[in-house]
Design brief:
Elements: H1 2-19, E1 26-39, H2 50-56, E2 72-73, E3 84-92, E4 96-117, E5 128-146, E6 156-177, E7 184-207, E8 213-223, E9 225-227, E10 239-241, E11 244-254
Antiparallel strand pairs: 1-3, 1-11, 2-4, 3-4, 4-5, 5-6, 6-7, 7-8, 8-11, 9-10
């Protein structure tokens, strides 16, 4: 599905070069805002996703250890984040607009081993074996918008698609259990890099007494996943799914 949307977005940019006449009036604007991001759900995540593996793969394989113990206890929905973003928009005529955007979101989630505790913990201390999972995303996006009613006066609905290069960093920090010896150790595992994906979105602009200022509300969905390095890097999965939907609120200024 992600590959399909990447192709759609690339095709949109190609068609834009054909559809927009050279003489079209060019108008610049900037949008700044914030929103809320919901990660893709447990059942829809990419195959090999580290978060799914953390919740489902047995963590303990030591001889004589009975039963299957899931690794970490947390919820995928805990990675809901509150991004901030900015976009530079260039309008060609009244209905076509291309944008370059930058966003930032960071979320940390507390987790623990579900079925095992530190039996050697001193009396009166917390015997839980705890970790912090953190996911930071900085998407750099290029998009094309189509405004069917144009940008003059009244409400201005729009739809669009684009591509995104997401700089991500995923870390697991805290105490872990060696799966063979049951030894508890403290460590940090890190995966970072760029992941390329696709965007689809739709929204509505509401002018504020003229053509210069406007409020904007937008629903957006990102498709993408990054590589973690898998077992060689200390992770149970070789992917980290970055996909999810967001509801964004912004303020636009034309000049």
């Amino acid at each position: 599905m992600m590959r399909v949307w990447v192709r759609v977005a690339c095709l949109s940019f190609c068609l834009l070069g054909v559809a927009v006449p050279a003489s079209a009036q060019v108008v610049h604007s900037v949008t700044m805002g914030a929103g809320i991001f919901w990660p893709r759900g447990f059942d829809q995540r990419v195959e090999g996703d580290t978060l799914v593996a953390n919740k489902t793969q047995p963590a303990i394989i030591a001889p004589g250890f009975s039963g299957e113990t899931s690794s970490l206890e947390f919820e995928i929905s805990d990675f809901r984040a509150y991004p901030i973003y900015g976009e530079w928009n260039i309008s060609f005529g009244h209905r076509i607009e291309v944008s370059v955007g930058l966003g930032y979101q960071n979320r940390s989630v507390d987790s623990r081993y579900r079925d095992i505790i530190n039996t050697a913990a001193p009396p009166g201390t917390d015997p839980e074996i705890r970790q912090e999972l953190r996911l930071r995303m900085i998407p750099i996006s290029g998009t094309v918008k189509f405004l069917p009613l144009g940008q003059a006066g009244g409400f201005q609905p729009y739809v669009g698609a684009g591509i995104s290069a997401v700089n991500f960093k995923y870390t697991e920090t805290g105490d872990f259990v060696d799966p063979s010896t049951l030894e508890i150790f403290n460590d940090q595992f890190t995966a970072d890099g760029f992941a390329f994906g696709a965007l689809i979105f739709g929204g509505l602009r509401m002018p504020l007494g003229g053509d210069v200022y406007a409020l904007q509300v937008e629903g957006r969905y990102l498709f993408g996943s990054g590589n973690t390095g898998g077992n060689d890097a200390g992770f149970l999965g070789d992917k980290i799914d970055l996909s999810g939907g967001s509801l964004n609120f912004g303020f636009l200024i034309r000049f």
